[in-house]
Amino acid sequence: MENKSVLVLGAGELGLPVIRNLAQKAKKNNTIITVLLRHATIESEEFVKKRNIDELKALGVELLAADLSAPSSELVSIFKNFDAVVSCTGYGSGAGGFQLKLARAVLEAGVKRYFPWQFGVDFEIIGRGSAQDIFDEQLDVRELLRSQSATKWVIISTGMFTSYLFEPFFGVVDFDKKVVNALGSLDTAVTVTTPEDIGRLTAEIFFEEPVIENSIVYIGGDTITYRQLGDVIESLSGQKFECTVSDLEELGNDLKSDPTNFVKKYRSIFGDGRGVSWKFNTTFNFQKGIKTTSAREWAEKNIDWSLCNYF
Ligand SMILES: NC(=O)c1ccc[n+]([C@@H]2O[C@H](COP(=O)([O-])OP(=O)(O)OC[C@H]3O[C@@H](n4cnc5c(N)ncnc54)[C@H](OP(=O)(O)O)[C@@H]3O)[C@@H](O)[C@H]2O)c1
Question: How many CB atoms lie within 10 A of CB 164?
């Protein structure tokens, strides 16, 4: 399998750590990494974007200006020049065919290896018609990739970003009220991984020998129940937290009253508990003995426990 020229699509929250780690390994593997970003992003004067572009330049990766919303024929002519494409676009323009369009262009361009943007939960166990309608397109992409053999593919299942467990918008931990609100039940589990670990492990999986192909690789920083999360929070804060439960009925009613709410869709999926966790000892990182960040370690480092505040 040739992995000599790799195109990474996007360099956001997930893409940057992926690129950092690919770039590091690329030097040893005689591989050139190119990052596709919109022209306006590459030339942006906005502080964060400019800092990220400077970092990419310092990493020695090539920058390629293009917009993925361009017609497919333009994407095909770009993708043709690469052995492998790693998509870190996020949901891009949302539902409505963006992920499928990218996958089709990758296949038409004859790219040898594709890592689609599927860094999330187990869409197959969750199935079609779930609360999160954009998951159906992720399943369409899987069907398309499986329907052919010319392009080898790798899907990396990561669970949720670890930070989400603690972020106020997700409604699980309320530091002011001292409440841990379980989604589904106290014994419902969730697998979480930090973007930094996803970046590290994506690069490991990319360059793994023998080459990984046509596989779904499960990774994880932690698999934790909401009851265990409550214990972690009490132990780090030294304070008592009340454990409450938003059961499936409550989560369903929440969503019914606000059916387009992206976070409520996710809360409903996580409350259901199917496809959102896997046993830690089945993960690629566990089996390879690669250390990842647990929920406790993440919280210890990123939360101001003296104020008991998420920041
Ligand atoms: N498992 C999880 O829980 C999980 C996994 C992945 C992502 N997420 C969440 O989902 C959100 C997305 O994260 P992310 O890193 O995947 O995405 P992101 O931070 O939004 O980054 C997306 C990247 O793709 C680029 N991009 C988007 N549309 C493009 C287009 N049409 N043409 C060229 N480039 C384009 C963006 O460039 P611009 O700067 O030009 O927009 C950006 O570099 C984050 O809030 C993250 O927390 C969660």
Answer: 16
DSSP of 129-143: T-SSTTHHHHHHHHH
What is the reported pLDDT for 176? 92
Q: What is the pLDDT of residue 182?
A: 98
Residue nearest to atom 31 of ligand 1 (CA): 68
Hunting for tokens 């779930």 — which residue is that? 130
One-letter amino acid at 154 equals V
Output the CA–CA distances (angstroms, integers) from residue 294 to 29, 153, 163, 234, 263, in the order listed. 30, 28, 11, 16, 23
What's the pLDDT at 133? 85
Instruction: Give Dmax (Cα) for the chain.
Output: 59
Nearest to 155 by CA among 225, 89, 86, 250: 86
Q: In terms of Cα–Cα distance, which of 288, 21, 311, 54 is closest to 166?
A: 311
How do strand 5-9 and strand 84-87 relate by DSSP bridges? parallel
Least Cα distance to 156 among 18, 33, 293 occurs for 18
Mutate to test the pocket of ligand 1, among 35, 89, 193 (most ligand atoms within 8 A of CB): 89
The helix/strand/coil state of 214 is coil
Which SS3 state, helix, strand or coil, does residue 63 take? strand
Cβ neighbour number for residue 160 with a 10 Å cutoff: 19
- Nearest-angstrom CA–CA distance, 305 and 40: 40
Residue 137's alpha-carbon distances to 61, 100, 105, 130, 132, in angstroms, are: 31, 7, 15, 11, 10
Positions of E strands within 4-50: 5-9, 32-37
| Residue to substitute in 16, 19, 38 for testing ligand 1 pocket (most ligand atoms within 8 angstroms of CB) | 38
Q: What is the residue with the minimal CA distance to atom 36 of ligand 1?
A: 10
The ranges of the chain with pLDDT < 70 are 1-2, 92-95, 308-311
- Residue of minimum CA distance from atom 11 in ligand 1: 90
- In this prediction, residue 92 carries a pLDDT of 67
